Amino acid sequence: xxxxxxALWVLxxxxxxxxxxxxxxxxxxxxxxxxxxxxxxxxEDTSGDAPEVTPDALPSDARDSQAxxxxxxxxxxxxxxxxxxxxxxxxxxxxxxxxRTDATMDVxxxxxxxxxxxxxxxxxxxxxxxxxxxxxxxxxxxVNGAVCVDRWEASLEEVLPDGAARPWSPYLSxxxxxxxxxxxxGVVPQGYISGQQAEAACRLAGKRLCALSEWLQACRxxxxxxxxxxxxxxxxxxxxxxxxxxxxxxxxTSMGVFTYERMNNPGINMQPDSLARTGAFDRxxxxxxxxxxxxxxxxxxxxxxxxxxxxxxVDAEINGRGCLYTTTxxxxxxxxxxxxxxxxxxxx
Length: 348
Known about the structure:
The chain is α+β, with helices and mostly antiparallel strands and about 350 residues long. It has helices at about 5-10, 20-40, 90-95, 100-115, 120-130, 195-205, 210-220, 245-250, and strands at about 140-145, 145-150, 155-160, 165, 180, 210, 300, 310, 325, 340, 345. Helix content is about 25%, strand content about 10%. The longest helix has 18 residues, at about 20-40.
């Protein structure tokens, strides 16, 4: 695939506020030529008995006991996992994002013009072909020259009292356990986790939960895209829009199943075509090279009031489109089958 040198400069300097004038002048022509060469990338409800899945029925790495939550949300609390809409608008996100300087706005205008019409695949290839920055730990990516972000949704390992570590099942909640966040491709990421637990797991890994502005930069890229891959929605490019609803499918009914206890059953995410391994939707990748920021699992961010981003494998549109998807209906201590996270860190 051809690599337009000036379009590459556009992306590399997108967050810097300056770039060579000659490259600015020719970026749009290069982008147009590249587009001509490559083109633009272009279940009904079920019934029947669904038994509760107990730890004994899980794979061997998932047979640890599940402690009941200490303080679940009150019954009837709204949850994005059952498809009901959050009360707060996604407009709050742009209002809380970091303000742009005039220089940054000018460069991003050039980026948008130069890359207009290019697919997210081509843009991501350009960025990922540049030399990697060694200031981030393994499994993380330097975003906008300012923050390291996990390339993958987090999985966990349990840390034992003697300091040894062992794998932790992604299908079990972590009450009473000490767990550390990992960023790995090709594994089932951790659901069933609260924002508070995710924060502790990141901290034990020497990281932290991402701030809203950091998460948005990671998802939207230097061009402030609506979706990680572009501005036009492509159904099932990310792991979202699954039907039938996994809770309804698992229990065989929609009556009385959207409760805290039932929505934390490990069997929900073990169903086929539900929670995917990290990076399995390999075209759901942001311009920085981060996977699954939209769909798969909701991702907690650093908001003690309780906010998760990006949607999950059933829906990534109801509470905002793509990267703007925001859920604020739950406390930071809430968790169910749909809640996950990734970590951020300061560059070394």
